[in-house]
């Protein structure tokens, strides 16, 4: 089990890094700071549930670079699927059970999906990059907006570069947290 976790995490990081490599145009524009409203809430975090959300795996199977997409997923797939240092995070298809969904709670980080194979994690995950309406990466902290591992969310955005079918990066302008 420990070996499969390490392999899964290593492969996951390769997928995440590869997905990030195609995001944005480095050095062309400064990160956008204007991500909060007067009330202090993140502008990209929306209350109204977007219509037409599709599962991560379905979007990953047929999305092309530049497509507008609405994707439903769960924050997870890595030990650290999101951080305060980056407007980028990982989501998993909702059909894939996290370790928290198992009968025995035997995992300290159930959002890493360590009970899944590397192939399953790769096939069912996507990288989400928060961007402004003009497409520039936001300088924001998704955790400060209240997002956390295992939150079910709906992401609205544009598909970024797809160097392979294994990589799906969504350049998101809106995120809705699903009430559970």
Explain how this protein is built.
It is a single chain. The protein is built from three helices and six strands. With 180 residues, the protein is α/β, with parallel strands linked by helices. It has one domain: Bacterial OB-fold (OB fold (Dihydrolipoamide Acetyltransferase, E2P), Beta Barrel), CATH 2.40.50. It has a five-stranded mixed barrel with strand order 2-3-4-6-5. β1, α2 and β2 form a beta-alpha-beta unit. The two termini are 30 Å apart.
In short:
The protein is α/β, with parallel strands linked by helices. 18% of the residues lie in helices and 21% in strands.
What's the topology here?
Blueprint: H1 2-21, E1 54-55, H2 56-62, E2 68-75, E3 88-92, H3 118-123, E4 125-130, E5 152-159, E6 169-177
Parallel strand pairs: 1-2, 4-6
Antiparallel strand pairs: 2-3, 2-5, 3-4, 5-6
